[in-house]
Fold this protein.
Amino acid sequence: MPIRFSRLCMFSSVALLTSLPLAATAQQTYRVLDHWKIGGTGGWDYLTADPGAHRLYVTHGQRVEVIDSTTGKPIGAITGFKGIHGVVLDPNGKVGYVSDGGANAVIVFDRHSFATLASIPAGTNPDGMTYEPVTKTVWVFNGRSNNVSVIDTGSRTVISTIALPGKPEFPRADGKGNVFDNIEDKNSIVELNAKTKTLTATWPLKDCDSPSGMAIDTANHRLFSVCDGGKMAIMDSESGKQIATASIGDGPDAAGYNAKAQLAFSSNGGDGTLSVIDAGHGYKTIQNLATQKGARTMAHDESADRVYVVTAEFGPRPAATAANPRPRPAILPDSFTILVIGR
């Protein structure tokens, strides 16, 4: 009896010890926690998290859906747009900005009533935007006129227009007076000085075609650009040197960064995955989480450790024609859904 008891204890101890790393690993793995069905019709583009107010702003068709991020329930909408892309929030907590590509304008809205406060003319097809805190300006990157409109948030006017070397995609600000943006058709990143409102550098990307989404690690001066071909380029934002390339899923369009955990994310609509990159240990891909086909854009809420991606159900793809050689499948009505991802 004593011998059998001691062996049982030994085996139990070994089992407990060997299970601890597995449990710890499982706790760090991201998974889909919930599906919030929003419904409605139309396509979508970027979404933006507001952790302080527990809200999620989702561009959808000709409106911005405002979602309570604690319950997943719609609490309002901002309407009257022609072709929206993204939402940027002023840190004052009072207003937000929507890039309306169809109207060639940026719309200012009240974050409490969701009423429109102003319409600011921009370039052609304003798309990606970022708020620059040093100069208190909003930088709006115009996809078809290949330039950036700089908006003063006090006067709500464009105070500068800066030419770019190609088609801009998603931008990021480092909080120190610098703005960075992917140039999709040139496979490069530009650096702009917010104080002088000038383009200060253009850095080529290696093995990274059509860069779209961008994330930033301001503490370690890193930029993460997602590209076609299943690649994420990691660049030093001070020197402009590309220091690594990570593997991601197919068809990415957005990127995010978790500063606490030192993890970079890529949302990939082509194969319906969320790629997770360990930015603290060699930029290795540690997870490709299955999400849903078409979930190409994302928002990251670091305070809640949540990632949100959006997509819908699709019908059959129409036959190709000479006028439309690459037709898109129709979006099924009322299938628009937000996927909530966490650990």
User: Anything to note?
Assistant: The CA atoms of residues 280 and 319 lie 46 Å apart. Confidence is low (pLDDT under 50) at residues 1-27. Residues 2-28 form the longest helix (27 residues).
